[in-house]
Specification:
4-stranded parallel β-sheet, alpha/beta, 19 helices, RNA-binding, 526 residues, 52% helix, 4-stranded antiparallel β-sheet
Length: 526
RNA sequence: GCGCCUAUAGCUCAAUGGAUAGAGUAAUAGUCUUCGGAACUAUUGAUGAGGGUUCGAUUCCCCCUGGGCGCACCA
């Protein structure tokens, strides 16, 4: 990796400071702020020249090394270099986690596609990755659902769709505003469920079956496969031992009939309610314990919305109190909301993912009516995912129909299109791709050559920052540079065909690798 | 009330202490007898307010204002 070599060289010359890519390319490939010039720099394989300006040492890399690094991208050597970063380390990532009996909303999409991208990024960096879909399949919400089904269900549960279930759930909330007894009834039914009541369990199981079927359809559509689906109910028989551990550590307090854990700088977390039923906090603690015992991870990542930031901090802090060793991180992605601020999910006014996909597919069809269904779908999903992935995860997303379906400019389809464009040239040309760095390059060509090697750095940065957006931004920049080049020069039939093929081929390679990391499909033609 | 996040161009986003704050979109004017126009070129346009730290602040600290989320029997 060039950056590592450069760091070594700087050390040899006793130059300290953060190396960075200058804001403008005319200041070189890298720069270090030293404040004063440094004399007698040692000879080196990678540095072509340096120049002191405005407090910076600007550094230009040798084209020979740029060529070598570029050629390596995607090869075994390259993969091996990346893998060194995380070799021997294990991470578990908790993502997607839709709730049973509720359609897959765009909120869960965010968790799903960011989580999957982080998984892919850590994996290419050599980590052993375990994806765990922690389904919301337990809790008082089922008490509510059972009450609603028994009171207002007009057909047998097993024949209901997931939308029917959602409608009933929403109705429960509306009715319970006036009828206060409903909440109590729901809690009683949940207690029955926890005590393995036959009727409650039967209804619960049927709701699970309906939901899983729907989720599988969505994951298939999104091209997402999560290693494990261990919902909350999986931990039912694993909670007692956690309670015992907490008792032994003396961190469990009794308060108003409930069992809680208190923290110094946070509100308390409840493990057991006054009626004896368990909470999702306790199930989450059992989950951490199970993950440790099963996979012994170094790092556990939660890809969960910012609305559960406190809950996550309580889990992390409690784990620390129990002396558990993994590092924890919560992506705490921002909420999706309208431009005017409101996004009322409680009132049943959610946006379902299927609706977004349908609309995006219509849009993709308008642009290219001749494309088959498969390509239309890949473009539509590419647009939707990219919209999510290209923004800093922790910021809220303003939901905008036009932007979600955008297929121009900074968009997934722009990248897919650029890739297809490259492939089209590569398929037409009969020549080998090859670059001779002694030839004088056009500035658009040189811009490309000086962009390729950064890919590796961006993957590492994305992992450090838990932000796939770092890669998304880079790919947009690369595609833009390629299209600038493309608009100005021809490839096929020119004297310079070989080297232009090289630039085209390398651009395509990175776009494909990068999009794959983001979980976005590429196609040869579109 | 307390805690966490957040404020950059008309709109949606970049810039994680550095050089001239970058893109997309919208608007306007162009490029092309297209190796694929889902493209390219050009013009217009921005750091919420006030302090502080620093050689240097969109970035760090304080305060004010606006927005989002959370704060025990939902998950």
């Amino acid at each position: 990796m060039i950056k590592k070599d450069l760091e070594r060289w700087l050390q040899e010359n006793k130059i300290e400071g953060k190396i960075e890519h200058p804001s403008i390319s005319k200041f070189g490939d890298y720069a270090v702020r030293t404040g004063k010039p440094v004399e007698n720099l040692s000879e080196n394989d990678i540095v072509e020249k340096t120049e002191f300006m405005a407090g910076f040492i600007n550094i230009w890399l040798k084209k020979e090394i740029l060529k070598k690094e570029t050629e390596e991208i995607g090869t075994e050597v390259w993969k091996n270099n990346l893998e060194i970063n995380g070799r021997g380390k294990t991470m578990v990532i908790d993502y997607s986690a839709p709730n049973i009996a509720k359609p897959f909303g765009i909120g869960h999409l965010r968790s799903t596609d960011i989580g999957q991208a982080i998984y892919n990024i850590y994996q290419i960096l050599g980590w052993k990755c375990i994806g765990d879909n922690h389904l919301g399949d337990w809790g008082t919400q089922f008490g509510k659902l059972i009450v609603a089904i028994k009171k207002w269900g007009v057909k047998p549960v097993e024949t209901m769709s997931i939308d029917d279930l959602e409608t009933l759930y929403v109705k429960f909330h509306q009715e319970s505003e006036t009828d206060k007894d409903l909440e109590d009834e729901a809690r009683k039914w949940f207690a029955k469920l926890e005590n393995k009541d036959v009727e409650a369990t039967d209804i619960w199981q049927k709701c699970i079956d309906i939901s899983i079927k729907e989720f599988d359809r969505v994951y298939e559509l999104l091209g997402v496969k999560i290693d494990y689906v261990l919902g909350e109910s999986f931990y039912l028989d694993k909670m007692d031992s956690v309670i015992e551990l907490m008792e032994n550590k003396g961190i469990l307090k009794h308060s108003e009939g409930a069992k809680i854990i208190e923290f110094e700088n946070m509100p308390p977390a409840m493990t057991t309610k006054s009626n004896g039923t368990t909470t999702y906090f306790l199930r989450d603690m059992a989950t951490v314990k199970y993950r440790m015992e099963t996979w012994n991870p170094d790092l556990i990542i939660y890809e969960i919305g910012a609305d559960q930031e406190l809950h996550c901090r309580q889990i992390f802090e409690t784990s620390k109190m129990l002396g558990w060793k993994p590092q924890f991180y919560n992506v705490a992605h921002g909420m999706i909301r309208w431009a005017d601020g409101k996004f009322s999910t409680r009132k049943g006014h959610t946006i379902h993912l299927s609706e977004v996909i349908d609309k995006a597919m219509e849009e993709a069809k308008k642009i290219a009516p001749d494309n088959d269904e498969k390509k239309i779908k890949a473009v539509a999903i590419g647009a939707i995912k990219f919209n999510d992935l290209s923004q800093d995860p922790k910021k809220d997303i303003i939901f905008d129909w036009e932007k979600v379906m955008s297929m121009e400019g900074n968009s997934g389809p722009y990248l897919q299109y650029t890739y297809a464009r490259c492939q089209s040239i590569l398929n037409k040309s009969k020549k080998n791709s090859e670059i001779n760095v002694d030839e004088k390059l056009e500035s658009e060509e040189e811009n490309l050559l000086r962009e390729f090697y950064k890919f590796e750095e961006k993957i590492i940065e994305a992992a450090d920052r838990f932000s796939p957006a770092v890669i998304a931004e880079y790919l947009i920049g690369l595609a833009r540079k390629y299209n600038e080049f493309y608009a100005k020069f021809r490839v096929i039939g020119e004297e310079t065909e070989k080297r232009r093929l090289f630039l085209t081929e390398r651009t395509a390679k990175i776009l494909k690798l990068g999009l794959t990391l983001l979980g976005i499909e590429t196609m040869e033609k579109m």
